[in-house]
Every structure is written in structure tokens, then in C-alpha cells.
Amino acid sequence: MLKQILLVGLGGGLGSILRYLTSILTEKYNTSLFPLATFTVNILGCLLIGLLIGLLGQNIQENQNLKLLLITGFCGGYTTFSAFASENFTLLQNHNYWTTLFYIGTSIIVGIIAVWIGFIITKHI
């Protein structure tokens, strides 16, 4: 168990560092109001997690440590949006269309509401 935790932690740390560097580079050249840094990280993370699932998904047991390091750790540290997209992709592959729509809709709406509630709470502290 300790080995798996360390693999996830190492991957997550590296993913977080790359996210920060990607954001700095993107924001340096982005002058619009569109949040290009986050968009770039999210799309690149989704592409990467798709590649990794395709490459590592064939041999689940043999590649478990690589999955923990690269998918759970690195992609999770780089962007949680990639995990969200991957979960929705799995739901779609399993023909769970209504669950997919519900998950997407509630995640976005409840997520925005949660940010708003957190913001409001800090104004009353």
C-alpha cells in the first residue's frame, strides 16, 4: 500500500508542477478574458489520459503501478477535469447516457454553486 501511495504522490506532484508551468506559459501570451490556461491544461490532460488509458488499459494487472503513477497521480495532479472526462467516457461506453448527462450537469451546476457558497461564507467570517 505504501508503494502505491508514493507512486500516486510522485505522479501528482509532477503533474501539479507541470500544471503550474503550463499556466505561467499560457498566461504569458494570453491577453483575452478567456481562461486559456485552465482550458489548455484541461484539454491536454484529457488527451493524455485518453492516450494512457488506451496504452495501459490492455494489461490492467501488469500496468497497475504505471496507472497509479501516470493516470491517478500525474493526470490527477495536472487536472482533475481529465478524471471527470474519463469517468464520463466510461459511462458513455457502458451506454449509461442518462447517468452521464446527470453527472455532467450536476457536477457543473453544483460545483459553481459550491464555489459561490464558499465565497459567501468567507464574506461572513
From TrEMBL:
Localization of this protein: Cell membrane
Residues that coordinate or bind Na(+): 76, 79
Swiss-Prot/TrEMBL keywords: Cell inner membrane, Cell membrane, Ion channel, Ion transport, Membrane, Metal-binding, Sodium, Transmembrane, Transmembrane helix, Transport
Pfam families, A to Z: CRCB (PF02537)
Listed GO CC annotations: plasma membrane
Activity regulation, free text: Na(+) is not transported, but it plays an essential structural role and its presence is essential for fluoride channel function.
UniProt-recorded Gene Ontology molecular function terms: fluoride channel activity; metal ion binding
GO biological process: cellular detoxification of fluoride
Catalysis: reaction(s): fluoride(in) = fluoride(out)
Membrane topology: Multi-pass membrane protein
Top-level taxon of the source organism: Bacteria
Keyword Cell inner membrane: yes
Spans traversing the lipid bilayer: 33-56, 68-85, 97-121
Protein's job: Fluoride-specific ion channel. Important for reducing fluoride concentration in the cell, thus reducing its toxicity.
Family according to the record: Belongs to the fluoride channel Fluc/FEX (TC 1.A.43) family.
Protein name, UniProt field: Fluoride-specific ion channel FluC
Organism: Candidatus Ornithobacterium hominis
